[in-house]
């Protein structure tokens, strides 16, 4: 036998004996084991023992109240070249929007174009520059479902949608087609599927959508809203935000009928309800029981307007953290309530100017906001009052009234007494027209509340 054959037999024998000693198991290098983790045993995957769960995701929402461009507000934005710039009105709010995923407001004026004529109350139409200016200020979305949506009829609403869309703003509550409505009700924001719904109690005048085109504008029909809630949930919505243009103008507390609607929508799947229309701030309320992770702000008041009767120059920013947990369930986290003040003053040329100021900061450093000591003193009292009011839902009205009607005045007697101011809807020639009126006495403060609303557990 040759030496080569003997050598091969020796090597084969040594290899066989080594394999037997090791039990026939493959050897894994330390480096490879560190990369892959422990090998599964008995043919099972390690994932079956430790189910992978998605990390919690958050959505920061900042919401504001009514954007009302009365004639004096429009005049204050006029530029020498004939254009308009509303951006300075919001410059003190822009830092508060930093880092937010959705910043929205109620755009309560059509943007129907200059040919349609610029007007204030009662039939609004504002310059188109307003949309781009809101975007520049940090807003990302507007709701168009309000009672002034058709102040320039359906053609004006369609032009408003086009103008807002061209500015890069998300629009809610009004649509260009049934398909547009379906697509707009559900959007992905910051990696979260969000339902964005918006509705109004009605519109000024008697304009109605053509038969079969009810998709044009959202109205507060509870059956339709609940159907939309169900639809977006079935299509994968992880969070649902509902804008409601409801409530009674200039009333600082919601009526029971509005509270009942909110409860109905909570039960139907709404997570956060944003209210507007009363032009004054109404309380913020968290849900209870099964709805403990839900909340409503009944009214955020006016963001910008020329109204200055009692409480109409004060608005509210709601800054909320919404979370989709590991289990896919939505939860309401920290909520900050930031009162704002629409500050009107005359410049050196006697021209009226407007600035929306965060009240707490303005009280702390009035000089930085161009406030006089007298302004600061008045603002401090207003801040204290609105702080107490925000979480108060005592002293409820005795009964609800229909949205389009006003509470009845006291019956006439031999010496009739006028109905209390708080229960009488202001006439068009006063606060609602943006004209200056004598402020009424503020309501008596109720239970105190902190502006930083704690997160639920």
Brief summary:
This protein is α/β, with parallel strands linked by helices and 457 residues long.
Explain how this protein is built.
Strands 1, 2, 3, 4, 11, 12, 13, 14 and 15 form a nine-stranded mixed β-sheet that branches. The chain has eleven helices and 15 strands. It starts with a helix and ends with a strand. It has 457 residues and is an alpha/beta fold. α8 packs parallel to α9.
Dominant shape: globular
Strand element count = 15
Helix amount: 25-40%
Biggest sheet details: 9 strands, mixed
Q: Detail the poorly predicted runs.
A: 5-52, 394-450, 452-457
Q: Kindly name the structural category.
A: alpha/beta
Task: List the quaternary state of the chains.
Answer: single chain
> How far is it from the N-terminal to the C-terminal residue, by CA?
84 Å
Give the ordered list of helices and strands.
HHEHHEHEHEHEEHEHEEEEEEEHHE
Write down the overall mean pLDDT.
Answer: 81
Strand content: 15-25%
Total helical elements: 11
Determine Rg (CA atoms, Å).
Answer: 30 Å
Layout of secondary structure:
Elements: H1 3-21, H2 30-36, E1 57-67, H3 71-76, H4 94-97, E2 102-107, H5 129-137, E3 141-143, H6 153-166, E4 170-172, H7 178-184, E5 186-189, E6 192-200, H8 222-234, E7 239-245, H9 256-268, E8 272-276, E9 281-286, E10 295-300, E11 302-304, E12 314-324, E13 330-346, E14 352-358, H10 359-364, H11 373-390, E15 452-453
Helix pairs in contact: 8-9
